Amino acid sequence: MQSLNMDQLVIGIDIGGTNLRSGLVDNDGLIVERRRCASRIDEGRAAFCGLLLSEIMALKEVAAVLGKQVRAVGIGIPGLIGCDGLIRSSVNMQPLEGFNLAACVEARTGLPAVSANDANVVAFGEQCFGAGRGFSSCMVITIGTGLGSGLILDGKLWTGNGGFAAEFGHITVVPEGILCPCGNRGCLEQYVSAGALVRFARERMSAEGAEQLSAEKVADLAKLGDAAALSAFDQLGYWLGTALASLINTLNIQAVVIGGGVAASFDLLQPALQRTIQQRCFSQMYEGLIVVQASLGDDAGLIGGAALAGSIRRH
Q1: Burial of 90 (0-12, 13-18, 19+ CB in 10 A)
Q2: Does the structure show a pLDDT above 70 at 14?
Q3: What is the span of the domain harbouring residue 261?
Q4: Where does the pLDDT of residue 5 fall: very low under 50, low under 70, confident under 90, or very high at 90 and above?
Q5: CB 23 within 8 A of CB 309
Q6: Is residue 52 assigned to a domain?
């Protein structure tokens, strides 16, 4: 992230199917003002864009009160976002498909704006201000409803040809395995996610014990020493470690940073994860590899969006 002047702030925006989060972020990655509202995406593109622009204007007004200027806007969007900012596919934000939201923000606000896949934005935030700081190469993974990921190579966010790189959750780990919403079978996301954790636990519990399970409940049971819940975390760690070993053997990265709701129980996941990576990696690549929990939590999207905005060169 380029250094800002002392009188400048950047806006980070974290878009989700349910909530729209935004904030003013300073040069040190500290959020000085934050806002949150329902995204209203079910009301269509125009309503959503109107809401987004009003949130940006409200943050500009707050910045002015603080005696600061807004330098740029960085936006994290769920889905496939091209290098040109065009939203090619977004399951949770379908009204925005085929639309360039960053270009719209620039045109309507006069501020430089940039957008990227939300998991890539999180990865950039962790690399600039979080647990990925100090590593020139790392994979940042978020485990929640699905599996998001972003790849840092040579200190830069790697987006690949077209901007769609690092869809780690959709590598095939079980040929002809569980059908994924993406249309493929056996995607890693079907074996490493909150839903997968619950499924693993249910497979190991009695019918009575498996009722009304959630990922949080499985974690609570595991912390109490429940064998089925602990085994479910081991299974999750096994699948994630198997996939990561292939990535590490390919890229010889320095670190893996793991965040998201499921990673709140990182201590339950880590033993099987670390063991599997070690078993499946070349020893020379495993030596020195760091596997850590993400540090920015729910703020990763805002801070990452701001970091992305701060990387825009001044015209």
Answers
A1: buried
A2: yes
A3: 134-295
A4: low
A5: no
A6: yes
Residues 284 and 182 in one domain: yes
CATH number, domain with residue 85:
3.30.420.40
pTM of the model: 0.93
Return the pLDDT at 212: 81
Residue 117 lies inside a defined structural domain of this protein: yes
**163 and 272: one domain?**
yes
pLDDT grade, residue 17 (50/70/90)?
confident
Sequence-distant contacts of 100-103: CB under 8 A, at least 24 apart: 101/49, 101/52, 101/75, 101/77, 102/73, 102/75
The verdict on 39 and 181 lying in the same domain is no
Same domain, 153 and 274: yes
Q: Which helix (H) or strand (E) holds 22?
A: strand 19-25
Tell me the two tokens of residue 244.
Answer: 């990561």
Whole-number mean pLDDT of the chain?
A: 94
**Distance (Å, rounded) from C-alpha 17 to C-alpha 91?**
9
- The pLDDT value recorded for residue 314 is 36
Domain count of the fold of the chain: 2
Distance, CA of 42 to CA of 48 (rounded, Å): 8
Tokens representing 309 are 């905005």
